[in-house]
Write a structure and sequence with these properties.
21 helices, 7-stranded mixed sheet, 5-stranded antiparallel sheet, binds adenosine-5'-diphosphate, 5 domains, Rhopdopsin 7-helix transmembrane proteins, 19 strands, 54% helix
């Protein structure tokens, strides 16, 4: 009875082992799982048959159970071999062999069941042990054919596995060796069992144990082994260094990067060796144990830069189990940054050279232009000949155009060099809009275009902002609208949007009925030197800078500009600029002022008792100034250098001094400073004459002590207005 109980226990062990096989089936990939699942079914059948053998009550029952048992073993071997072939990547062999092998196994199984009629494989005999009857078998030659088939199948599988072991990489070899061991184990156990002729047939247990081993190797051993080998390889392949120290500060690992770069031999490497010594020292000087530090190494020719992180290594329970250094080579990044910095400095230098060049060129162009326009003005004043006056008018128009181009280039270079400042002061918005209207009324009328202004009366009368630049923005937009419109006209709409305490958004919309801008061109509209629709605009003069300057000025004032345009129908530019309110009194209706008709020159005053000094190193400029002021009867002294001017100031007290800015030796500012320091002409107003007139210049010169500035080429009206303002009232007759 005990033996039979043992029999059942052995089978229970087999069942437990089979449970592990079921686990393996759930984890392995679908292709392997199919073969393992069939192995499992065959094993369950073998176990049932084995239990039936143990519980048999007659020889026939035992014979049927044995037939089932031997046939099940056939199929266990068939499916196990199939699994082994798949697992060792012999898919082609599987495809070729699985049908012929299944046929052989099926024939063998049928022949085993034929034993019930022919007794061709084995005969049953009774054996009594401890008064319990067992049914045992004596084998006939056919049974050994059945055994041979099983062993051939197993040997074929062994051959394929050994082949794979020989061909595979070290890393994966262990995976196949385990499967090989499983098969060998099954063979050895079976042979041992047969040699010993035990009462108990335990071979089913061997197969179940084989299943368990397969589970262990596919799920536990191989992945772990593979992981540790792969991680070690990956860390070696890393482009960063890793040095590990154990809890007692013994070096336990340095990857290939470190061994190569720092020649590290882990047996002779400790905290006194570089680069870790420097890192620890640097962190200690900052009062830290762990952290990040930089390390530089140079052999005089090549300098290497490293970023090194020193950290504690913690286990799952956050207990320290060592430390590690992570080393990153930042040399390339450093060199790259240095190159970028060099390129930036070179670009800055080139840019500032360009700005200086543009400023100088504009000065150089303005100086002769001053003479051209000045002399031309004299022709206009003195000539009675209609034809000559017409020629002179043309020179005047072209000269003004040239001047506006120079101004644009100068503004642009100033913005680029970051030297354009936003200077805020109180201004009257109605006045500003009126001026813009007056400026464009005549050009629009000359093209038969209307110029309409719609102005929101509620806009506060006095705002605080950079009126000069707002005027420049509006001027650019109206100028473009007039330039690019052939029929219809231009409308300017000025409104406001209250955005907070004493703050509004000034909204200026300039719309025209001109040629419009295509959707493809819109993105490039605000790019510098970019003119769109070039073919059609070829005859329209422009630099492609106006809108670029406009946009940048608006951005500097924290505003925004948008464009809406339909090709052939017109364009609408909308500008929104936040402004402070200086006085909340509403502006009221806008009364437009018409620009006075261009009339023939007539001096606006006479001052025969006035005595002024004009200083300029270019004789022609002095000549122009004197000619322009001839009719005012002012007494004019001239000087061609700062030194000469100073010596003249020693002798004479002037009513006004007009001083050129750029002069060789002492420039205008130095001359002015010396005159003031020496206490000469103490109360005399000094006006700067400059060809560098840029927006914001007025404030700058006033700050230096000048009474104002006049830009070259000299505008006669501006010159006369300045003199009227600065000369003593009692000697000016208007
Ligand atoms: P430009 O000196 O050429 O006028 P801008 O920067 O002022 O330079 O304008 C750039 C381009 O935008 C112009 O060449 C023109 O093609 C187009 N443009 C500007 N304003 C208008 C407008 N109101 N209608 C049609 N096209 C315009």
């Amino acid at each position: 009875m005990l033996t039979k109980t043992l029999y059942v226990i052995v089978d229970i062990i087999a069942i437990i082992d089979i449970l592990f096989t079921i686990k393996a089936i759930a984890k392995v990939s679908a292709a392997y799982a199919r073969w393992l699942r069939y192995t499992l079914i065959a094993s369950i059948m073998a176990i049932c048959a084995n239990i039936l053998v143990a519980c048999s009550f007659s020889p026939l029952c035992a014979e049927v159970a044995y037939c089932f048992y031997f046939a099940s073993i056939d199929w266990i071997i068939y499916f196990l071999t199939g699994f082994c072939l798949l697992y060792t990547e012999h898919n082609a062999a599987i495809t070729k062999l699985y049908i012929p092998a299944a046929c052989v196994m099926a024939i063998d199984s049928i022949s085993l069941f034929a034993n019930l009629i022919f007794e061709n494989h084995f005969s049953i005999y009774e054996k009594t042990a401890s008064s319990v009857i067992f049914y045992q078998t004596t084998f006939h030659p056919m049974y050994f054919v059945h055994l041979a088939i099983d062993y051939i199948a197993i040997l074929a599988a062994l051959y394929f596995i050994i082949y794979r072991i020989a061909k595979t990489y070290d890393m994966y070899r262990m995976k196949y060796v385990i499967i090989l061991s499983v098969l060998l184990f099954v063979i050895i156990m079976n042979l041992a069992y047969m040699t010993l002729s035990l009462v108990l047939d335990a071979s089913v247990v061997f197969y179940a144990v084989a299943g368990t081993l397969i589970y262990f190797c596919t799920e536990v051993y191989v992945p772990r082994k593979l992981m540790s080998t792969s991680v070690a390889r990956a860390v070696d392949d890393m482009n960063e260094g890793l040095i590990l120290f154990d809890i007692s500060n013994n070096c336990i690992y340095a990857n290939a990067f470190c061994s190569f770069r720092f020649d590290i031999d882990i047996n002779n490497y400790d905290f006194t060796c570089e680069p870790v010594a420097s890192v620890i020292k640097d962190l200690a000087s900052q009062g830290k144990r762990f952290g990040e530090s930089s390390y530089v190494r140079s052999d005089g020719v090549i300098t290497e830069y490293y970023k090194i992180k020193y950290t504690s290594l913690l286990d799952r329970h956050a207990r320290s189990i060592g430390t590690y250094f992570l080393i990153q080579d930042t040399s390339e990044e450093k060199h790259y940054m240095a190159e970028i910095e060099e390129a930036r400095i070179a670009a800055d230098n080139a840019n500032s050279a360009k700005s200086t060049f543009l400023a100088n060129m504009s000065h150089e162009i303005r100086t002769p232009l001053n003479s051209v326009l000045g002399m031309n003005e004299m022709i206009l004043r003195t000539s009675e000949d209609k034809e000559i006056r017409e020629y002179a008018e043309s020179i005047k128009t072209s000269g003004k155009t040239l001047l506006s181009l120079i101004n644009e280039i100068l503004d642009f270079s100033k913005i680029e060099a970051g030297r354009m400042d936003i200077i805020e002061s109180e201004y009257n918005i109605s006045q500003l809009i009126r001026d813009c209207y007056a400026f464009f009324e005549a050009p629009a009328a000359s093209k038969d275009l209307y110029l309409n202004i719609s102005f929101d009366e509620k806009i506060p009368m006095f705002l605080k902002g950079d009126a000069l630049h707002i005027k420049q923005v509006i001027t650019n937009l109206i100028s473009n609208a007039v330039k690019y419109t052939k029929e219809g006209g231009v409308t300017m709409n000025v409104t406001e949007n209250h955005i907070g305490n004493n703050r509004i958004e000034l909204i200026i919309e300039v719309s025209d009925t001109g040629m419009g801008i295509s959707d493809e061109d819109k993105p490039y509209l605000f790019e510098s030197f970019k003119r769109v629709n070039e073919k059609e605009n070829a005859t329209i003069q422009g630099t492609g800078l106006g809108l670029a300057i406009t946009k940048q000025l608006i951005a500097m004032m924290n505003g925004d500009i948008t464009v809406d345009s339909i090709i052939g129908e017109g364009s609408s530019f909308k500008v929104v600029i936040p402004q402070d309110v200086a006085s909340s009194m509403p502006s009221g209706p806008l009364i437009l002022k018409h620009a006075p008709e261009e009339e023939t020159y007539k001096e606006s005053f006479r001052a025969p008792d006035a005595h002024i000094l004009i200083v300029d190193d270019v004789l022609l400029n002095l000549k122009v100034a004197c000619a322009l002021l001839k009719k005012t009867l002012i007494k004019i002294d001239t000087a061609t250098s700062g030194a000469e001017a100073i010596s003249m100031c020693h002798k004479e007290k002037y009513d006004v001094i007009l001083l050129d800015h750029r002069m060789p030796d002492k420039d205008g500012i130095e001359t002015f400073r010396e005159i003031s320091e020496k206490g000469l002409n103490k109360t005399t107003p000094v006006v700067m004459l400059t060809a560098n007139a840029l927006s914001g210049a007025d404030e700058e010169y006033k700050h230096l002590g000048f009474s104002g500035y006049l830009s070259k080429p000299i505008d006669i009206k501006a010159l006369e207005q300045t003199l009227i303002k600065l000369l003593p009232e009692d000697i000016v007759f208007q």
